[in-house]
Write a structure and sequence with these properties.
β3 (about 50-55) and β4 form a beta hairpin. The relative contact order is 0.13. The protein has a four-stranded mixed sheet. With about 230 residues, the protein is of the alpha+beta class. The model has no long low-confidence stretch (mean pLDDT about 95). It has two domains: about 5-80, Glutaredoxin, CATH 3.40.30.10; about 90-215, Glutathione S-transferase Yfyf (Class Pi), Chain A, domain 2, CATH 1.20.1050.10. It has helices at about 10-20, 40-45, 65-75, 90-125, 135-155, 170-185, 195-205, 210-215, and strands at about 5, 30, 50-55, 60. One of its GO terms (molecular function) is glutathione transferase activity. This is FtsZ-localized protein A. Homodimer. It holds the Pfam family GST_N_2.
């Protein structure tokens, strides 16, 4: 059985948890606090970042994008109608473009700020960078999430799912990042009904249940967080 090293509110880890659940895989989940930089974890991934997938064979697959590609190569063909990557080259390019958008751009402009400042810092020592949240970073992230939400709404006004006619990695990556922001109550859902309706569809899937059950000790989620009907 594979092991997934993850941090519950690392959005890229959440993305891989969604992927694995959609593929019908149930790995052992090993929570990792990246800021602790444990020697054992650094041996698996010298970058010190989650997620990392450790196969039973001993193969180490680090990073959300790499894990997603690896799972498609090794399991995708056996998923028939549930494959998370399209068949055509052009459609696969579009999924990869949007993966980059959410796993990197959205993370750098929104999720990384909010999760670090509002969650991770609560558990980090001062030596590791813990302490009071940087309100300037939080304000910037709250502004940035607005235009990302509008972009999702723009895509969904023209497509059935974010990257096209079928659910793909792009939807799972976007929803994973928004789920972290939504826990904190920082998604302005009233600004774009189309994006909100899409997110409701994704978070209603069985693969989302474990994410909606995650809790930060001493910090309850926004009231609508686990409400499938908002």
């Amino acid at each position: 059985m594979a092991t997934l090293y993850h941090f519950p509110f690392c959005a890229n880890s959440r993305f891989i948890r969604l992927v694995l659940a959609e593929m019908g895989m149930e790995p052992v989940l090993s929570e990792e606090k990246p800021w602790e930089r444990r020697d054992e974890f650094l041996m698996l991934n010298p970058a010190g970042q989650t997620p990392v997938l450790l196969e039973q064979s001993g193969l180490v697959v680090p990073g959300a994008g790499i894990i997603a590609e690896y799972l498609d190569e090794t399991r995708g063909l056996g998923l028939t109608g549930r494959r998370m990557m399209p068949e055509t080259t052009a459609d696969r390019v579009e999924v990869r473009r949007l993966l980059e958008w959410f796993l990197v751009k959205f993370d750098q402009e929104v999720t990384g700020y909010l999760v670090t400042e509002k969650i991770s810092k609560r558990f980090m020592s001062s030596r590791d960078g813990g302490g009071a949240p940087d309100m300037n970073a939080i304000r910037a992230a709250r502004i940035n999430v607005g235009y990302h939400l509008k972009y999702i709404g723009y895509l969904m006004a023209r497509r059935r799912w974010i990257a096209g006619d079928h659910l793909t990695y792009a939807d799972l990556a976007a929803a994973a990042h928004l789920s972290c922001v939504d826990y904190l109550g920082d998604v302005p859902w009233d600004d774009d009904e189309t994006a909100r309706d899409w997110y409701a569809r994704v978070k209603s899937r069985p693969s989302f249940r474990s994410l909606l059950a995650d809790r930060v000790p001493g910090m309850p989620p926004a009231a609508h967080y686990a409400d499938l009907d908002f």
